[in-house]
Structures are given as C-alpha cells and as structure tokens.
Amino acid sequence: MDQINWGIIGCGDVTEVKSGPAFNKVPHSHLVAVMRRDAEKAADYAKRHNVPKWYTDADALINDPDVNAIYVATPPDTHADYAIRAMRAGKPVYVEKPMARNAAECEAMNQVSRETGMPLFVAFYRRALPYFLKIKELVEQKAIGDIRYVRIQLNWPPYTEEVGENPQPRWRVFPEISGGGHFHDLASHQFDFLEYVFGPIKTASGMARNQAGLYQADDIVVATFEFESGVVGTGNWCWTINKEQRIEQTEFIGAQGKLSFSFFEKFFIRVETETGIENITVPFPEHVQQPLIEQIVNDLRGEGKSPSTGETGARSNQIIDWITAR
Question: Global pTM?
C-alpha cells in the first residue's frame, strides 16, 4: 500500500480531536469517508472535517473502493463484528480500545486477521506518546534501579450523569456494551502500557464488586498481578468516593528509588532517588493518537512496525478477564 485512505466507522467524540484530524496530518494518509447511523451527525462531521464522503451503513463504507483501511471507533460491543467484516473485505483495521468486550472476542478478531492476512491494530496510543516513552526509557536506563513492584491507585467520584434525581449513565457502565464498567475502559490502557514496559503479565487475580448500586457494572476492583520478569504489582480502582479523596497515580518502586506518574490526569513524571527529586514534563501532541497512527501508516506501507497490534491489544482484555473472573 502506498496511500492509506481511511474510512471511520463511528465518528463520535473520540474522533473529534484525539484521532480523526490526525489521519490527514500523517504523510501518505487521508481520511476519505466516515459512517454514523445518524445521517445528520454523519453529514455534520464530514462537513466540519472536510471528509469527502459520509454513510449511515457500515457495509457501504467497508465496500467503498476508495477506502483501503478501516478505523472502528464504535463502543466495544460492535468492535469484533465491524473489524471482522472489514478484514474479510480485504481491508486492514485500526480498532479503538478496549479491543473488544472480552478475550474471546479479541481472539476471534485475531483469528480472522491470521486467516485473511489483513493487519489488525489497536488504539493503545500510549505506546507511541513521548510522555510514556520517556517513562519506558527511564525504566530501561535503571533511573531507579531494578524495579521491584508496581502500584496503581485510581479513586474517582461518580460522574455527574451517574447521580442525581434522573441519572443517565453512559454506555461505559453497561456490561453488555462495554464488557464491564469503568475498569474495563481505563485499566485496559494501564495494563497494555505496563506490558509494553515490563513484558507479559503471567498471572493476575482480584475482586470486582458493585458497592454503590449506581449502575450494574463493577464500581470497585482490587487486583494483584505478576510479570514473567518477576516484577509484581497491585492495583485498586474505585469510582464512588468523594472528590476530596480523588487520586490517580501509578508508582514504580525500584531498588534505588521511585517513579510516579499519571495515566489520565497530571502529566508530569516524578523521579525520587537518594540524590533528590526530579519532575519531568513532556508535552502532549494536539492529537494524541497521531504518533501511533503515523507508525501504523508506516507499517502498512512496509516502512516500520506498529507497537500496538491485535495480538498485543488482546492481552489487556485477557488480564482484565482474569481479574474480574470472567
């Protein structure tokens, strides 16, 4: 492939800034079509982003001869269906995260990728972001010595739409759509990046419960996990505490210090050793998926390899399944 002409299935919020505009900013890449079931919203997106074509039917976009690569940006319940349809039509796929609702659906996607020879990529864009690459570099340079353990802490209050007299929770807390709850959505990023830094997690277990009853999905998860390298980890995630207790921090504890950072909020890296404390700031690009999209385009053109594939993307779903006993 020389020129990668993308079609987006599901041009919703995630595509407005994080990903959509990046397809036209990467060399040899162009966004030529979008699809959304709501015709008015599909047409509006196409107009605002200068996209030549829009559809309300996914198959029409998949079979458009001007489209030679598909980006699936719908909720997870349709990822496997759309990705498999696209690959069977002979088109590579870039799919949003989490890759699917569970490890079984991920394996079905990867099986079709192997059968058809069509590449499959997953939007774990932290594998290409300079901020997270700096963290990986610090670990590899042993800035805090050999890593002993990882500690994840995420405590957030409920989202506004989940409380009140007439709560209207979003799709992320409906297991039939997302596969679980907020843990499935956010922890997928965390485990994917941790494996990128430390290698495969060989065992993971935990407890997932619904304590507050705001919705059906789990709202608290506690987990332990171990990497094949011998590094061990713990994590706790809760989405029903008060705002004063809000925290989102991951720590790498090494033989000679501690490295702290945030996956989703405070974007600086803190390195603590016996010589002192260093705070490192690494700017984020305007479109956070652009560095990964560029690597995917290069991969499709035979000029590199994407760090995020269907095989690596499925791993976080497997780990989450282990922890939530699914």
Answer: 0.96
